Amino acid sequence: MKAIWNNQVVAESDDTIVIEGNHYFPPQSIKKEYFEKSDYSSTCHWKGTASYYSLNVNGDVNKDAAWYYPDAKDLAKNIENYVAFWNGVKVTE
Known about the structure:
DUF427 domain-containing protein, 9 strands, DUF427, single chain
């Protein structure tokens, strides 16, 4: 699977985990040079508190376009630190 934004592959893996229709990419599969930590967070009742990244590709920023659970609840431990995308990021094979 590939996550693409602004014509750039920002993550790529053959080992994503699909939950609620979202592909979660292993942390080592993201191209860190495009990721900037965000102050934004959200909460899921069964996964825990999500932290976010903004993407910066060729000077264009996609704010809070990726999220991950740094301290996932027990039911979601298998995706702890895995990264998922939204907000215009295309996830494709």
